[in-house]
Structures are given as C-alpha cells and as structure tokens.
Fold this protein.
Amino acid sequence: MTTDSTDILRIFRAVVAPGDTYSFEADTRDDAAVAYFLGEGITSFVADDNGRVIGMYKLIANRIGRGSHVANASFMVDPSEHGKGVGRALGEHCLDEARRQGYEAMQFNFVVSTNTAGVALWKKLGFNIVGTLPKAFDHARLGKVDAYVMHRFL
Ligand SMILES: CC(C)(COP(=O)(O)OP(=O)(O)OC[C@H]1O[C@@H](n2cnc3c(N)ncnc32)[C@H](O)[C@@H]1OP(=O)(O)O)[C@@H](O)C(=O)NCCC(=O)NCCS
C-alpha cells in the first residue's frame, strides 16, 4: 500500500508527545519527522489494520562503510494499539527483512531503560543489553534515566 506522510506524522506525534521513549522534542518539524522514516538509505514498513496505519518501523545501516553490516531500526506503534502484538509483528518482520538485505547483526543505540515494553520486546526477540549509557535520556516525568545499547546477531 502507499502510505501518506500524514499517517507517519500522526503516529510520530502521538509516540513522541509523552517524552518517555524518543529524544525527539514535541515540536520536531514535520519534514524532519517524515525524513526520519522516509529519508535516503532507509527502508520503512507500516502495519496496516484494514487500511489504517497502526505502526511503523525503519531499517537503516547503523554506520557507513565498515560498520554498515550492522543494521539499526526504530519502531513506533500507535499508542491506542499498544499491547496487541503489533510491535512483535513489526519486530519479527524487521529481523527477517534485515537478514534478507544481508545484514549480520542489529543494534539499537538508545533504548530508554524505563521503556518496559520496548526492553521486554527486544529481549524476547533475542537482543541483549550490551551497554548502559548512564542518565543519557531526559525523561519527561522521571528526569535523567539510563539508556541501553541492545544488540543481537542475525
Ligand atoms: C515498544 C513498542 C514498539 C511495543 O509494541 P506493542 O505493539 O505495544 O507490543 P506487543 O503488543 O507486540 O508486545 C510485544 C511483547 O512485549 C511484551 N510487552 C508489551 N508491553 C509490555 C509491558 N508494558 N511490560 C512488559 N512486557 C510488555 C508483551 O507481553 C509481548 O510479549 P509476547 O509477544 O511474548 O506476548 C510500542 O509500545 C511503542 O511503539 N512504544 C513507543 C515507542 C517505542 O518505545 N519504540 C521503541 C523504542 S526502543
């Protein structure tokens, strides 16, 4: 299906607003938000429930050149659809797609440690916490909290 950038912006804004999972500020410009998912070198997919976009992810090389065999990905599920298996479906799809594109590993550079759903899902999908960035995220409610680097081989 063709995804209008309106869908991407709707979910991006809803996910970013609470200030608890992503570094983006609530006033991030529309073009920057859309470019984050649709910019050059990025593969993006959406989860579609009867024509309504309810989640999305992007897949990109984590580094250029000699780091480009490791993938990086970002996920956003519409908050009204959390806890229904959408994140798992996107995560599993992303791992398959990364393997298909020839990546050898996947790395998440900045998983907020208090993001219970995210950390639980990535662990279930085989990721390990390989590093902790102390007080790296300024959580809107909790203040400075740790962020994890999570990794798995594909
Ligand atoms: C993190 C996120 C992608 C998960 O998507 P979701 O659709 O809500 O998650 P799912 O319903 O697919 O649940 C996936 C698994 O995580 C577990 N899980 C989900 N929420 C949980 C929670 N709050 N506590 C513990 N486990 C949880 C589920 O039990 C499920 O396990 P199962 O598949 O073995 O049953 C989604 O909540 C989201 O978009 N959050 C905001 C943005 C974000 O945090 N992105 C990731 C940044 S690293």
About this structure: Residues 15, 21, 75-77, 82-88, 108, 111, 115-118, 120-121, 124 surround coenzyme A (CB under 6 Å). The radius of gyration is 15 Å. The chain has one domain: 5-153. The domain at 5-153 is CATH 3.40.630.30 (Aminopeptidase).
